[in-house]
Amino acid sequence: MKLITSKDNPRLKTIRRLAQDSQAYRKLGLVWLEGDHLCRAAVARGMKPELAIFTESTWQASEFEWSQCAPEVWVVPDDLFAGLSGLESPAKMGFLLTLPSTPELNPIAATVVLDRLQDAGNVGAILRSASAFGFKQILAIKGTAGLWSPKVLRAGMGAHFALNLIESVSLEQLQALKVPLLGTDVHEGPFLHELAQQGKLYRNCAWVLGHEGQGISPELMAKVSQKVRIAQPGGEESLNVATAAAICLHASATSK
Questions:
Q1: What is 2-98's CATH topology?
Q2: At 67, is the pLDDT very low, low, confident or very high (cuts 50, 70, 90)?
Protein backbone atom coordinates (compact mmCIF):
# COMPACT_ATOMS: atom_id res chain seq x y z
CA MET A 1 0.00 0.00 0.00
CA LYS A 2 1.26 3.47 -0.89
CA LEU A 3 0.12 6.71 0.67
CA ILE A 4 -0.22 9.40 -2.03
CA THR A 5 -0.73 13.00 -0.95
CA SER A 6 0.13 15.11 -4.02
CA LYS A 7 -2.65 16.21 -6.35
CA ASP A 8 0.01 16.62 -9.06
CA ASN A 9 0.75 12.89 -9.19
CA PRO A 10 0.66 11.99 -12.94
CA ARG A 11 -1.63 8.99 -12.53
CA LEU A 12 -4.05 11.00 -10.44
CA LYS A 13 -4.13 13.58 -13.24
CA THR A 14 -4.99 10.76 -15.66
CA ILE A 15 -7.81 9.56 -13.42
CA ARG A 16 -9.13 13.10 -13.07
CA ARG A 17 -9.28 13.35 -16.86
CA LEU A 18 -11.04 9.99 -17.15
CA ALA A 19 -13.61 11.05 -14.56
CA GLN A 20 -14.38 14.37 -16.23
CA ASP A 21 -14.04 13.69 -19.98
CA SER A 22 -16.52 11.23 -21.51
CA GLN A 23 -14.18 10.51 -24.44
CA ALA A 24 -10.91 10.20 -22.52
CA TYR A 25 -11.13 6.41 -22.19
CA ARG A 26 -10.80 6.08 -25.96
CA LYS A 27 -7.69 8.26 -26.09
CA LEU A 28 -5.99 6.77 -23.02
CA GLY A 29 -7.09 3.14 -23.28
CA LEU A 30 -8.07 3.21 -19.61
CA VAL A 31 -11.31 3.06 -17.63
CA TRP A 32 -12.00 4.60 -14.22
CA LEU A 33 -14.55 2.82 -12.03
CA GLU A 34 -15.74 4.79 -9.05
CA GLY A 35 -17.61 3.29 -6.14
CA ASP A 36 -17.96 0.08 -4.18
CA HIS A 37 -20.72 -1.38 -6.38
CA LEU A 38 -18.92 -0.97 -9.70
CA CYS A 39 -15.64 -2.24 -8.27
CA ARG A 40 -17.30 -5.32 -6.79
CA ALA A 41 -19.09 -6.02 -10.08
CA ALA A 42 -15.79 -5.87 -11.95
CA VAL A 43 -14.07 -8.26 -9.54
CA ALA A 44 -17.03 -10.66 -9.65
CA ARG A 45 -16.65 -10.89 -13.44
CA GLY A 46 -12.92 -11.59 -13.27
CA MET A 47 -11.66 -8.10 -14.05
CA LYS A 48 -8.28 -7.22 -12.55
CA PRO A 49 -7.59 -3.52 -12.01
CA GLU A 50 -4.13 -2.07 -12.55
CA LEU A 51 -4.58 0.23 -9.60
CA ALA A 52 -7.01 0.51 -6.70
CA ILE A 53 -7.40 3.79 -4.84
CA PHE A 54 -9.07 4.29 -1.48
CA THR A 55 -9.67 7.25 0.79
CA GLU A 56 -7.96 7.06 4.13
CA SER A 57 -11.27 6.66 5.95
CA THR A 58 -12.39 3.79 3.71
CA TRP A 59 -9.02 2.01 3.90
CA GLN A 60 -9.06 2.05 7.67
CA ALA A 61 -12.43 0.29 7.66
CA SER A 62 -11.81 -2.23 4.87
CA GLU A 63 -8.06 -2.80 4.52
CA PHE A 64 -8.27 -6.55 5.01
CA GLU A 65 -11.03 -6.98 2.41
CA TRP A 66 -9.28 -5.11 -0.40
CA SER A 67 -5.57 -5.51 0.29
CA GLN A 68 -5.08 -8.04 -2.56
CA CYS A 69 -7.49 -6.54 -5.09
CA ALA A 70 -4.86 -5.03 -7.41
CA PRO A 71 -1.09 -5.09 -8.07
CA GLU A 72 -0.97 -1.55 -6.72
CA VAL A 73 -3.09 -0.10 -3.94
CA TRP A 74 -2.99 3.59 -3.12
CA VAL A 75 -4.51 5.42 -0.20
CA VAL A 76 -5.18 9.15 -0.55
CA PRO A 77 -6.62 11.78 1.78
CA ASP A 78 -10.39 12.05 1.54
CA ASP A 79 -10.28 15.59 0.16
CA LEU A 80 -7.78 14.56 -2.54
CA PHE A 81 -10.06 11.73 -3.70
CA ALA A 82 -12.96 14.19 -3.85
CA GLY A 83 -10.94 16.14 -6.42
CA LEU A 84 -10.75 13.03 -8.63
CA SER A 85 -14.43 12.29 -8.50
CA GLY A 86 -17.07 13.13 -11.07
CA LEU A 87 -19.79 12.74 -8.43
CA GLU A 88 -21.38 15.29 -6.12
CA SER A 89 -20.88 12.79 -3.30
CA PRO A 90 -17.55 11.02 -3.99
CA ALA A 91 -17.70 7.24 -3.58
CA LYS A 92 -14.38 6.96 -1.70
CA MET A 93 -12.84 4.12 -3.72
CA GLY A 94 -12.09 3.37 -7.35
CA PHE A 95 -10.33 1.07 -9.80
CA LEU A 96 -8.20 1.97 -12.81
CA LEU A 97 -8.60 -0.67 -15.54
CA THR A 98 -7.17 -1.23 -18.99
CA LEU A 99 -9.95 -0.68 -21.52
CA PRO A 100 -11.18 -4.16 -22.52
CA SER A 101 -10.36 -5.14 -26.08
CA THR A 102 -13.20 -5.04 -28.60
CA PRO A 103 -14.63 -8.52 -29.18
CA GLU A 104 -15.50 -9.99 -32.57
CA LEU A 105 -19.09 -9.48 -33.65
CA ASN A 106 -21.09 -12.66 -32.96
CA PRO A 107 -23.62 -13.08 -35.80
CA ILE A 108 -25.99 -15.31 -33.82
CA ALA A 109 -25.93 -13.63 -30.38
CA ALA A 110 -28.98 -12.01 -28.83
CA THR A 111 -28.11 -8.39 -29.54
CA VAL A 112 -29.08 -4.80 -28.83
CA VAL A 113 -28.26 -2.20 -31.49
CA LEU A 114 -28.00 1.39 -30.26
CA ASP A 115 -28.59 3.90 -33.04
CA ARG A 116 -27.03 7.25 -32.04
CA LEU A 117 -28.48 7.35 -28.51
CA GLN A 118 -27.22 10.54 -26.90
CA ASP A 119 -28.18 10.31 -23.25
CA ALA A 120 -25.63 8.45 -21.13
CA GLY A 121 -28.24 7.54 -18.54
CA ASN A 122 -30.41 5.92 -21.19
CA VAL A 123 -27.48 3.99 -22.63
CA GLY A 124 -26.40 2.70 -19.24
CA ALA A 125 -29.95 1.71 -18.29
CA ILE A 126 -30.33 -0.21 -21.57
CA LEU A 127 -27.08 -2.07 -20.92
CA ARG A 128 -28.39 -3.02 -17.49
CA SER A 129 -31.65 -4.34 -18.96
CA ALA A 130 -29.79 -6.18 -21.71
CA SER A 131 -27.67 -8.02 -19.18
CA ALA A 132 -30.67 -8.81 -16.98
CA PHE A 133 -32.65 -10.30 -19.87
CA GLY A 134 -29.87 -12.31 -21.49
CA PHE A 135 -28.87 -10.05 -24.41
CA LYS A 136 -25.10 -10.42 -24.38
CA GLN A 137 -23.99 -8.29 -27.34
CA ILE A 138 -24.27 -4.50 -27.66
CA LEU A 139 -23.56 -2.85 -31.00
CA ALA A 140 -23.33 0.94 -30.79
CA ILE A 141 -23.69 2.85 -34.06
CA LYS A 142 -21.30 5.78 -34.43
CA GLY A 143 -22.77 8.79 -32.62
CA THR A 144 -23.95 6.83 -29.59
CA ALA A 145 -22.75 7.98 -26.17
CA GLY A 146 -19.45 6.36 -25.21
CA LEU A 147 -20.17 2.97 -23.67
CA TRP A 148 -17.25 3.21 -21.23
CA SER A 149 -17.80 6.85 -20.27
CA PRO A 150 -18.26 7.57 -16.55
CA LYS A 151 -22.00 8.33 -16.70
CA VAL A 152 -22.78 5.23 -18.77
CA LEU A 153 -20.72 3.11 -16.39
CA ARG A 154 -22.60 4.44 -13.39
CA ALA A 155 -26.00 3.93 -15.01
CA GLY A 156 -25.02 0.42 -16.13
CA MET A 157 -24.41 -0.60 -12.50
CA GLY A 158 -21.87 -3.28 -13.46
CA ALA A 159 -23.68 -4.66 -16.53
CA HIS A 160 -20.67 -3.80 -18.70
CA PHE A 161 -18.71 -6.75 -17.36
CA ALA A 162 -21.34 -9.27 -18.48
CA LEU A 163 -21.63 -7.92 -22.03
CA ASN A 164 -19.69 -7.89 -25.31
CA LEU A 165 -19.52 -4.22 -26.25
CA ILE A 166 -18.68 -3.05 -29.75
CA GLU A 167 -18.58 0.68 -30.55
CA SER A 168 -18.62 2.72 -33.77
CA VAL A 169 -20.39 -0.04 -35.68
CA SER A 170 -21.33 0.72 -39.29
CA LEU A 171 -24.52 -0.26 -41.08
CA GLU A 172 -22.40 -2.53 -43.28
CA GLN A 173 -21.16 -4.44 -40.22
CA LEU A 174 -24.75 -5.12 -39.18
CA GLN A 175 -25.17 -7.20 -42.31
CA ALA A 176 -23.13 -9.91 -40.57
CA LEU A 177 -25.98 -10.51 -38.10
CA LYS A 178 -27.89 -13.71 -38.79
CA VAL A 179 -30.63 -13.05 -36.24
CA PRO A 180 -33.82 -11.08 -37.09
CA LEU A 181 -33.67 -7.32 -36.56
CA LEU A 182 -36.66 -5.86 -34.71
CA GLY A 183 -37.20 -2.12 -34.53
CA THR A 184 -39.44 -0.06 -32.29
CA ASP A 185 -41.77 2.33 -34.09
CA VAL A 186 -44.41 4.67 -32.65
CA HIS A 187 -46.82 4.40 -35.57
CA GLU A 188 -46.21 1.21 -37.56
CA GLY A 189 -46.09 -2.53 -36.99
CA PRO A 190 -48.01 -4.99 -34.80
CA PHE A 191 -48.18 -4.48 -31.05
CA LEU A 192 -45.54 -6.18 -28.95
CA HIS A 193 -48.01 -7.92 -26.66
CA GLU A 194 -49.95 -9.30 -29.64
CA LEU A 195 -46.79 -10.79 -31.15
CA ALA A 196 -45.99 -12.38 -27.80
CA GLN A 197 -49.50 -13.81 -27.43
CA GLN A 198 -49.34 -15.27 -30.94
CA GLY A 199 -45.95 -16.85 -30.33
CA LYS A 200 -44.42 -14.71 -33.08
CA LEU A 201 -41.87 -12.88 -30.97
CA TYR A 202 -38.24 -13.90 -31.40
CA ARG A 203 -36.22 -14.78 -28.33
CA ASN A 204 -32.88 -14.73 -30.17
CA CYS A 205 -32.92 -11.52 -32.13
CA ALA A 206 -31.42 -8.04 -32.41
CA TRP A 207 -33.50 -5.18 -31.02
CA VAL A 208 -32.74 -1.84 -32.67
CA LEU A 209 -33.25 1.23 -30.47
CA GLY A 210 -33.09 4.68 -31.98
CA HIS A 211 -32.08 8.22 -31.14
CA GLU A 212 -34.17 9.81 -28.35
CA GLY A 213 -35.67 12.44 -30.63
CA GLN A 214 -35.26 11.14 -34.18
CA GLY A 215 -35.80 7.43 -33.61
CA ILE A 216 -34.18 4.81 -35.81
CA SER A 217 -32.56 6.23 -38.93
CA PRO A 218 -34.37 5.50 -42.22
CA GLU A 219 -31.30 3.64 -43.52
CA LEU A 220 -31.25 1.33 -40.50
CA MET A 221 -35.04 0.93 -40.38
CA ALA A 222 -34.86 -0.35 -43.95
CA LYS A 223 -32.82 -3.28 -42.65
CA VAL A 224 -35.33 -4.17 -39.91
CA SER A 225 -37.34 -7.31 -40.58
CA GLN A 226 -40.14 -6.43 -38.14
CA LYS A 227 -41.40 -3.09 -36.85
CA VAL A 228 -42.98 -3.31 -33.41
CA ARG A 229 -45.19 -0.96 -31.42
CA ILE A 230 -45.72 -0.86 -27.66
CA ALA A 231 -49.33 -0.35 -26.57
CA GLN A 232 -49.80 2.84 -24.55
CA PRO A 233 -53.39 2.89 -23.32
CA GLY A 234 -52.68 5.97 -21.22
CA GLY A 235 -52.24 8.02 -24.36
CA GLU A 236 -48.68 9.38 -24.08
CA GLU A 237 -47.04 10.22 -27.38
CA SER A 238 -43.98 8.06 -26.78
CA LEU A 239 -41.91 6.23 -24.18
CA ASN A 240 -38.42 6.95 -22.96
CA VAL A 241 -36.08 4.76 -25.00
CA ALA A 242 -34.64 2.99 -21.95
CA THR A 243 -38.17 2.17 -20.75
CA ALA A 244 -39.12 0.89 -24.21
CA ALA A 245 -35.95 -1.21 -24.29
CA ALA A 246 -36.73 -2.87 -20.97
CA ILE A 247 -40.26 -3.74 -22.12
CA CYS A 248 -39.08 -5.19 -25.46
CA LEU A 249 -36.12 -7.13 -24.07
CA HIS A 250 -38.22 -8.65 -21.29
CA ALA A 251 -40.91 -9.66 -23.79
CA SER A 252 -38.31 -11.41 -25.97
CA ALA A 253 -36.59 -13.08 -23.02
CA THR A 254 -39.86 -14.55 -21.75
CA SER A 255 -41.34 -15.50 -25.13
CA LYS A 256 -42.12 -19.16 -25.81
A1: 60s Ribosomal Protein L30; Chain: A; (3.30.1330)
A2: confident
